[in-house]
Design brief:
The complex is a heterodimer. Chain A is mostly helical. Chain A has helices spanning 3-17, 22-25, 31-41, 46-59, 65-70, 78-87, 91-103, 106-118, 125-132, 137-150, 153-165, 168-187, 191-203, 208-221, 227-234, 239-249, 256-267, 270-281, 289-297, 301-314, 320-327, 332-344, 348-360, 363-375, 381-387, 393-406, 413-420, 428-440, 445-458, 461-474, 477-487, 492-503, 511-520, 524-540, 545-558, 562-574, 578-587, 594-610, 615-621. Among the domains of chain A are: 1-119, no CATH class; 459-541, no CATH class; 559-622. Chain B is 33% helix and 15% strand. The longest helix of chain B is centred in the last third of the chain and has 20 residues, at 380-399. Chain B is globular and about 60 Å long. Classes of the chains: A mainly alpha, B alpha/beta.
């Protein structure tokens, strides 16, 4: 009898002894399960047995355990068997795994011990302890972690003992398991016991990472009493320990830590303080804002930058004036950072305070506040309107930008006036940008386009083109109509601008307009442009094949040159379809298009054949 | 079976912390001064020493995001393929103008190096979780490609391990660091769309992916291709070079026959992750229905639906997401563009369009957090929840029936079959 057979016999006998009777339970075994068991019992190739194991992971019961257990010594199928065994609930599997662990060796033993650990089998502690204290360090290591997962008192005591006596190779795994025990104690409300375990690990000779984990646990398990250890760790010269403290700061409960961190800021080197202040700001519920603000206002520039950035997350109205001061100061990098923070500083009260400050401000501060109104989207058109009258061009530019960001539709005329007849000619580009910004964000784009269309009628020619550009960006039916009208106007410049913009229109709603212009635009060159724009829509946009073919058909009819007719065929080639094939095939009869149409027809037919379309009937019908 | 009560006990506080830390989602990141160098140079002691594990096609792209970072020193690469080890070493050495990049066949030797601070894990998905947790226990921070986990259990243990070990973990969900996706999520999260009704993710094919057991071929020399290490935690099967692509091998799911993670997990780990962000990183859905009309509908505790939807998308590129509230909606995709129900939702803000889903910003976020020890956008808690949603949806798909999930016990309610699919044993000697 081979060792493998002996193992099988032992397993079967033990399962029978455990009260398992496969014959008696046969009626409870599903057909699915029985089929898979039969595969395992057969001479089926390993690949089939492997898949049977996967099925049994879902459908298996106690009845499948004996056959699965037989596979545990098999280097090829052991892992497949454990996929099922780990998944099947119940004592029968636990017993089978325990028995297997007594006789297996090497990797297969490791796998079984891992499965025992994953199943949290408290009944296996004794055998795991034997492995832990045995000569096989690999098996002892996985047993240590399995004990850590089980984490009951006997497991914990075994790991405690092992930590004291284990050799270097084993001790690391023992500590890994012991940390799991400490976590369990902490979760169960036994913080004092958890701390004791963590401290034992911290005092042991172990790789740094285990000490890091134990220190984190020791800090958090102590609750508020853990603060001294947290600070001690934060002051450590060891980089890993300092990093651990920075992370743990963010998890630490209560608010005492916030005050302590504020003190640390004063004594820490700048390279550390800049990181501490970030950690402080991640404690948004309890952060000592005054300390962060103070760091933003004075001290080392590196720390100030970090603190200014941190205020984005935790700053409030109390930070507004100090940040405005920094943003208008001489240090450019600090000023940029302050400006970024001012833009996102939270709270409606910040907006109110901005408006309160602007009333008394002047110079650079006034300009900054005017900018902030736009950046923070504060509704303050009268304030901005007043700023438009400033003698300072930068202030006027800031006011225009802010109006662009905030002006409502019923006051769009303010910006339109600045474009039609700017008080200062040099302000025109800024006014145009502001009008564009305002127009494209208007929720009712037809209403906005109506306002802009009225302005077109009043504008000088060059300004009309600018307004048409903006109208095209607004989009919608009204904009489309305005551009269509302009494209047929008696001004060549407007025809040029409008037909160009329509040619770039980003939607098939422009198709009828472009098709009409393709035959009615005042100048031939704009008819061609319109037709090309029309074909561009057919090429770019998703649409039913019939619609696309119809558009190409209309384009070919309207086209006065073969160049555009060929473009229409190219569209059909890019989007192969049966309607497109019919159209291309028909075009072969046109002598001027014949070669191009034949090539297109062949290309479409080839593409359709690949999709399984019977194109012969289509072609024969043409 | 695993006792569910001992998982994620600090979940609530961690979740709250995460929300607070990520509240200013679109605000500029804090870049520690050591990134830029106070005098234009970064001393070696301030650099983050990085090693790579399994750097193939995707990993090569990630590597190209790491190498230009001034505060990174890439020093080692591990791969089970000799050819690839050499190729990556050449890239790294060429970048630094030296020959110092060390090569390893066994990633545990790389992790044993005390000088290495962080690792880039870009193996196939079969290895992601196991390698990540092994790295964490070795004291390394990590940027880990997605899908990060193969099943629900791994997702839970991953988050617990990162918390316990105090490591910085960034999943390769780089869209969290792209402005238009961040803005779309912010609109949903901050109530700008009204009460959220539905969030949509694109699974890009609810098809099966199967690693299989292919006919045996002669196994190469271990130095050339280490098949045993390639299989790693996956159940044993004979060598066949067609299984060596890594990308689809044992992607996750752990199901039977021709079914494995598929698009729900492959793409879901990105777009469901964004949906999770949109719902303010709340616990994953509690109810999952089987596919119907190209959709897998799931429901959060508060009634909001997460829908895996194949069709009906505005053409905005791959990985689209859509968030619908009672008063508005937004849709965004990999083109860098988004479509809003009303331009008013922009509220005057200009959102930068960055197409092509670059990982540069995500890598930078990770490196900054390595220094600050803050939470990166793709942290382990976020990855856990998104992956659980994908795995649970796959289970509903596989079982072809509705399953209900309890986030407190991390188990399916009165559903033994579904519960058995939460985890899968690892091949010996690997463990989590």
């Amino acid at each position: 009898m081979t060792i493998r057979n002996i193992i099988h016999s032992v397993l079967i006998v033990s399962l029978a002894a455990a009260g398992f009777n496969s014959a008696a339970n046969a009626q409870n075994v599903s057909k699915e399960e029985q089929a898979q068991i039969t595969v395992l019992q057969s001479d089926a190739p390993a690949s089939e047995k492997a898949i049977a194991c996967k099925h049994l992971a879902v459908h298996g019961s106690d009845a499948a355990v004996p056959e699965l257990a037989k596979l545990l010594p098999d280097p090829k199928l052991s892992s497949w068997a454990r996929i099922a065994l780990e998944a099947i609930p119940g004592a029968v599997v636990d017993e089978a795994l325990r028995k297997a662990s007594e006789t297996l060796e090497g990797r297969q033993l490791v796998g079984v011990i891992n499965s025992i650990g994953n199943r949290r089998d408290a009944g296996a502690v004794e055998l795991l302890v034997k492995r832990l204290n045995g000569k096989d360090v690999t098996a002892g290591s996985v047993a240590a972690v399995a004990l850590g997962k089980i984490a009951n008192q006997p497991a914990r005591e075994a790991l405690k003992s092992a930590l004291a006596v284990a050799n270097d190779d084993l001790r690391n795994a023992v500590a890994e398991g012991y940390v799991l025990c400490a976590e369990k104690l902490h979760r169960d409300g036994k913080a004092t016991a958890a701390v004791a375990v963590y401290e034992e690990i911290r005092q042991a000779k172990l790789p740094k990472q285990r000490i890091v984990e134990a220190t984190r646990g020791a800090i958090l398990a102590r609750g508020q009493e853990g603060l001294p250890l947290l600070l001690e760790t934060l002051r450590s010269d060891d980089k890993k320990m300092f990093q651990l403290a920075l992370g743990t700061v963010r998890e630490f409960p209560g608010s005492d830590v916030d005050a302590a961190l504020a003190k640390e800021l004063n004594s820490a080197a700048p390279a550390r303080a800049e990181l501490i202040v970030q950690a402080m700001a991640d404690r948004s519920d309890t952060v000592l804002l005054a300390a962060v603000l103070k760091s933003a206002e004075q001290g080392d520039a590196v720390v100030r930058l970090s603190a200014i950035n941190a205020l984005q997350r935790v700053g409030d109205v109390s930070c507004l004036a100090p940040l405005v001061k920094i943003a208008t100061g001489n240090d450019e990098s600090l000023a940029v950072a302050a400006n970024e923070t001012l833009t996102v500083l939270r709270g409606e009260s910040v907006n109110k305070q901005v408006l309160a400050m602007v009333a008394d401000a002047d110079g650079a501060t006034y300009r900054l506040l005017i900018e902030l109104i736009g950046q923070r989207l504060i509704k303050a058109v009268p304030v901005l309107k007043k700023a438009l009258a400033s003698n300072d061009s930068e202030t006027r530019a800031a006011a225009l930008m802010s109006l662009g960001a905030t002006v409502p539709l019923d006051q769009l005329g303010l910006l339109i006036d600045q474009v039609l007849s700017p008080d200062h000619a040099a302000d025109l580009p800024a006014a145009t940008n502001a009008l564009r910004t305002a127009s494209v964000r208007m929720p009712d784009r037809d209403a906005c386009a109506t306002e802009l269309a009225k302005a077109v009628s009043k504008a000088k020619t060059e300004t009309k083109s600018t307004l048409l550009e903006i109208i095209s960006e607004v989009g919608g039916a009204k904009s489309l109509g305005t551009l269509a009208t302009a494209a047929k106007s008696d001004s060549d410049a407007l025809q040029d601008t409008a037909s160009r913009l329509l040619g770039k229109w980003n939607g098939v709603d422009a198709a009828p307009v472009l098709l009409d212009l393709a035959s009615t635009a005042p100048a031939g060159k704009y008819r061609i442009r319109a037709l090309r724009g029309y074909l561009g829509l057919a090429r770019k946009f998703s649409m039913p094949p019939r619609q696309r073919a119809d558009m190409c058909n209309k384009a070919m009819k309207v086209a006065t040159r073969t160049t555009e007719q060929k473009l229409a065929l190219d569209v059909l080639k890019i989007h192969p379809s049966v309607p497109g094939l019919r159209l291309a095939a028909a075009a072969r009869k046109n002598p001027k298009l014949s070669d191009h149409a034949k090539a297109t027809t062949n290309a479409i037919a080839a593409a359709l054949r690949k999709r399984g379309v019977n194109v012969d009937s289509v072609l024969s019908g043409s | 079976m695993v006792n569910q009560s001992d998982k994620t006990t600090t979940k609530k506080s961690r979740r709250d912390f995460l929300k607070a830390a990520l509240a200013t989602s679109t605000a500029p990141l804090f870049i520690p001064s050591t990134v830029l160098g106070r005098d234009g140079a970064i001393p070696p002691s301030e650099r983050i020493i990085v090693g790579g594990i399994g750097i193939g096609r995707r990993g090569g792209y990630d590597l190209s995001c790491f190498l230009p970072q001034k505060d990174v020193q890439f020093v080692a690469v591990c791969d089970i393929k000799q050819k690839r080890r050499g190729e990556v070493k050449n890239i790294v050495d060429s970048h630094y103008g030296n020959e110092k990049c060390e090569t390893y066949r066994d990633f545990r030797e790389l992790l044993d190096r005390d000088d290495i601070d962080a690792v880039l894990i870009a193996t196939g998905p079969n290895w992601h979780a196991t390698a990540a947790m092994t790295a964490a226990k070795a004291g390394k921070d990590m940027y880990c490609e997605k899908p990060v986990t193969k099943n629900i259990e791994q997702s839970l243990i991953l988050a617990d391990t990162m918390r316990r070990t105090g490591r910085v973990f960034q999943a390769g969900t780089q869209r969290r660091n792209l402005p238009h996706f961040a803005f779309a999520c912010e609109l949903a999260r901050t109530g700008k769309l009204g009460k959220l009704k539905r969030v949509y993710a694109h699974p890009a094919g609810m098809r099966a992916l199967m690693s299989g057991w292919l006919p045996p071929e002669e196994e190469p020399d271990k130095e050339a291709v280490d098949w045993d290490m390639y299989l790693g935690p996956a159940a044993w099967r004979p060598y066949n070079k067609r299984l060596l692509d890594g990308f689809n091998f044992e992607k996750g799911g752990g199901f039977v026959g021709a079914f494995s993670g598929g698009g729900v997990l492959e793409w879901g780990s990105h777009c469901v992750d964004l949906c999770q962000w949109a719902v303010d990183d709340c616990p994953p859905p509690v109810e999952y229905h089987p596919p119907k009309d190209g959709e897998i509908v799931t429901r959060y505790e508060n009634g909001t639906e997460l829908v895996f939807r194949e069709k009906g998308w505005i053409p905005l590129g791959s990985c689209p997401v859509r968030f619908e509230g009672e008063t508005g909606w937004v849709e965004a995709g990999d083109s860098g563009k988004m479509v809003l129900s009303s331009p008013e939702l922009l509220a005057g803000r200009q959102v930068e369009e960055i197409g092509g889903y670059p990982a540069t910003f995500h890598v930078r976020d990770f490196l900054d957090c390595v220094k600050t020890r803050g939470l990166p956008k793709g942290n382990a808690d976020a990855a856990r929840d998104a992956h659980i949603a994908c795995h649970a949806a796959n289970i509903a798909l596989y079982l072809n029936r509705t399953v209900k999930y309890d986030n407190k016990t991390n188990s399916f309610i009165d559903d033994e079959q579904a519960n058995r699919l939460r985890s899968e044993a690892l091949r010996e000697p690997w463990r989590l």
